[in-house]
Amino acid sequence: MFRINQFISRKIMVTFAALIVAVCIVLSLFFFFMTQRVINQNVVPQFRQVLNIAMDGIIKGMDSTQAMQAAQGNSGEIMKIETYLETQLQAYQLDNLYLLRIEDNKAIVAAVANSSKNFKDKQEVQLSDNINKAMTDGKLLTDLYQTDAGSTVTYYYRVPGSSVIVAASMDASFVNSIISNLIWTTVIVAIVALAVCLWVAYKFSRKITLPLARLVRHTRLVAEGNLQQDIKMTGNDEIAQLARGFRLMTENLRTMVHQVLDSSDKVAVGTEALTTRLNKMQRMVDQSVQSVTSIESGSEMIANTTSENARAMEEITTGIQHIASSTAEISEQIGDASDSAITGNQMAQQAVTQMGSVEKAVMDTKLSVQTLIERSESISEILVAMSDITKQIRMLSLNASIEAARAGEHGRGFAVVAQEVGKLAEQSRASTYEIEEALESIRQESQKSTESMDSVTNEVKSGTELVQQAGDAFNRFVEMMQLANQTVQSASAATQEISAGSEEVSASVDETAEITHKSLTNVKAIAKNADRQSGEMLAYVEIMRELNNEALSLQNIVSKFKI
Questions:
Q1: How far, in Å, CA of 197 to CA of 18, rounded?
Q2: CA 380, 385, 388: angle at the middle one, nearest 5?
Q3: What is the CA radius of gyration of the chain?
């Protein structure tokens, strides 16, 4: 504050001092030139007039011949002329009165009044332009000029017809005194004026700098963040208006800082809460991305599995159709076997009368029974294959139910179809089991028939009794073959139903595969959107972190203010 105060005061005082010095210089120059003008216009003309009158009187009373003789060095004439010059000098109150002899471009004092102050006899004087001009013009009254003795006005008069000049001069040194006094007076007045003005400038600067110093001190407090202090100034001048404006600015700044503090607190709290929520949302989005990725992987697996199931169902359908056709063939063969058994029964009834043909009939029967055994073994193999297929269908039905449960709403229809397929597989398994039991019985009975045929062949003699037993056996065989035919027909019908169901299952599997592929496409789109949302959430989180940091920085800055 002191430096600022001194700086402004110094500027004001230097400004005032420079102004006063400039004014004093101008006034001094003005007075000096005015004095010179007054002297030149008033004093010098008076000097010239006095010298002109004096010279006229001196020339009138002086003997020119005597003056020329004195100039030639005549001592008697010199004394006379010097006495005359002394008298005239006293009469006209001159300072110097003398005769000059001009020869060889020299001016020599030939005679001088005894009271002359600056000249002596035979003194050589500088041949000036004024003297030369006087020699040319005959006379010359000079202006005021400076010599070693001071200011002087001289009148030169050449004695007609000679090189003698009468010179009369008056001392004007008082003019220098007047000028010197004027200069000193001006200097003193300037110094006094400068001192007074500096004192006034000091007082004036104090009146300006003290309020400014208070403003500066208050400004530093505000700059340091202290808004608790108010500045009070009285008056209506510009500084007071500035102080009031500054006080209003401080109040507005205090209000603004308070509002900024509140706003920054709210922004910091809000951004922190929003950042927390965004972090939670980011974690949720990451989990969603992971879930979608898992779903995508599962969907791809389901799609692949569904495609494989579709191909498997096509193969199963083909196999079931083949089983159905094979079962139909078996049914036809069993019908043929039944017809053969009836024929054998008829032959057994005729065996009583046709014992001779028993052996042949027995051999034919044996061959038929062996064929039946072979065909029953083929049917058994087919039934084993059907049992395996039924197991695979059950496994496929179970897998289809699991995949339908994973698919949710989209797999509900597929789950119903899978259940129906499971039921059909269970029915097929039961029918196959019954066919296997019947075939086992047929194999056993056929084996017994073979053994019986062997016994008949070996014991033809007891054939009559055994023929009757064979007839009974053929009756039972016919019944069993009819039962086997019915069982095979049931198996064929069940196989056809399974074939139809497998076709429906295949269609459902194809539809499921198509739906799964569409779901996979949608899941991939969802995964892509989830990745994009995750990136956007990361950007939002980063923006909110930066905003939170800015709010905290603003809080730190504004907290420096004291309100």
A1: 10
A2: 125
A3: 78
By the 8 A CB rule, do 538 and 203 touch? no
Which letter does DSSP use for residue 562 in this model? B
Give the type of residue at 219: T
Q: How far is C-alpha 519 from the chain's CA centre? A: 42
CB 484 within 8 Å of CB 439? yes
- Would you place residue 5 in the very low, low, confident or very high pLDDT band (cuts 50, 70, 90)? very low
Q: What is the pLDDT of residue 457?
A: 65
Tokens found for residue 241: 């208006």
Q: Name the residue among 510, 522, 257 with its Cα closest to residue 400.
A: 510
Q: What is the mean pLDDT of residues 396-412?
A: 73
| All domains of the chain in start order, with CATH | 2-196 (3.30.450.20), 326-529 (1.10.287)
Contacts of residue 166, defined as CB under 8 A and 6 or more positions apart, other chains included, come to 55, 58, 59, 62, 67, 97, 98, 99, 100, 156, 157, 158, 159
Separation between Cα atoms, residue 553 and residue 504, nearest integer Å: 71
CA 75 and chain centroid, separation: 117
- Do residues 4 and 218 lie in contact, with contact meaning Cβ atoms separated by under 8 Å? no
The bridge status of strand 139-141 relative to strand 164-171 is unpaired
> Given a cut of 60, is residue 388 above it in pLDDT?
yes
pLDDT in tens, 337-379: 566 656 766 665 675 566 666 667 667 766 766 776 777 677 7
